[in-house]
């Protein structure tokens, strides 16, 4: 089978990882395109001694790790706006500990595979994940709006959110209810299902909310491939149903990580 056909089924999920890693759809998808361009330019360099998905992520990691950050700072003690912007951009770079957490908790790689992907030992992966989890424990608490029409799933999400130390502003089951609750009590994070009780859309609910104020959003869907095409504006953070507790935890912490490292205008 041609290499392109082997890699195609894994591209949506690489986009999910790249977007979570960068906190931005456009930037994440750009890294994915750069990965594919590197593979096309030098197919003989693609690691063929491992599973195609593992080789794809390994190539992506090489692109990610080699990408330089242009801070525009000469190393001096510059307190200018340029320095502030540079430092904010540096703060938005996902550290290796969070890469390890995303690869294991969100992408489902084993400790051994993750070690291969980021170039460390399995023991170091365990230490990095523990470091990321410790950082999450220190993370600022947020008030979360849950938009989910399935009661059991909504209860599960609410339990996870509260166990992480966050509050819940409410649970909405329709678009109109979600918008009303957001306006009544502004959340610091939104968890939104795609398909809601009255056949309304969680995406439309979020669009209505974002028209009023900015807030990080995590979408939840049983069909992630439909929102990971890279062909149109799509979610930055996406959780696949059925989800694991660790996946939700990683997604929430990463969304709040970027929300707390906003680049000044």
UniProtKB/TrEMBL annotation:
The keyword Phosphoprotein applies. SUPFAM superfamilies: CheY-like, Sigma3 and sigma4 domains of RNA polymerase sigma factors. The modification 4-aspartylphosphate is found at residue 193. Coiled coil: none annotated. Residues 143-256 form the Response regulatory domain. CDD domains: REC_PhyR. NCBIfam families: PRK09191.1. SMART domains: REC (SM00448). Pfam families: PhyR_sigma-like (PF22233), PhyR_sigma2 (PF22029), Response_reg (PF00072). This is Response regulator. Keywords: Phosphoprotein.
């Amino acid at each position: 089978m041609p290499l392109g056909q082997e890699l195609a089924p894994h591209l949506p999920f690489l986009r999910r990882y790249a977007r979570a890693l960068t906190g931005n759809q456009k930037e994440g998808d750009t890294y994915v395109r750069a990965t594919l361009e590197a593979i096309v330019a030098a197919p003989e360099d693609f690691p063929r001694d491992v599973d195609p998905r593992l080789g794809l992520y390994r190539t992506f990691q090489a692109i990610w790790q080699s990408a330089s950050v242009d801070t525009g700072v000469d190393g001096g003690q510059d307190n200018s706006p340029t320095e502030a912007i540079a430092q904010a951009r540096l703060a938005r770079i996902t550290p290796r500990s969070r890469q390890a957490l995303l690869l294991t908790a969100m992408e489902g790689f084993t400790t051994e595979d993750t070690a291969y992907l980021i170039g460390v030992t399995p023991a170091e992966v365990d230490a990095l994940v523990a470091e990321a989890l410790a950082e999450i424990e220190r993370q600022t608490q947020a008030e979360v709006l849950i938009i989910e029409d399935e009661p059991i799933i909504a209860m599960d999400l609410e339990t996870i959110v509260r166990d992480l130390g966050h509050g819940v502003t409410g649970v909405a089951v329709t678009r109109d209810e979600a918008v009303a609750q957001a306006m009544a009590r502004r959340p610091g994070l939104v968890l939104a299902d795609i398909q809601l009780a009255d056949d309304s859309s969680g995406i439309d609910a979020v669009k209505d909310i974002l028209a009023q104020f900015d807030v990080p959003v995590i979408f939840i869907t049983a069909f992630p491939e439909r929102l990971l095409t890279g062909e149109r504006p799509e979610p930055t953070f996406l959780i696949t149903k059925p989800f694991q507790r660790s996946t939700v935890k990683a997604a929430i912490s990463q969304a709040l990580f970027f929300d707390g490292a906003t680049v000044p205008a």
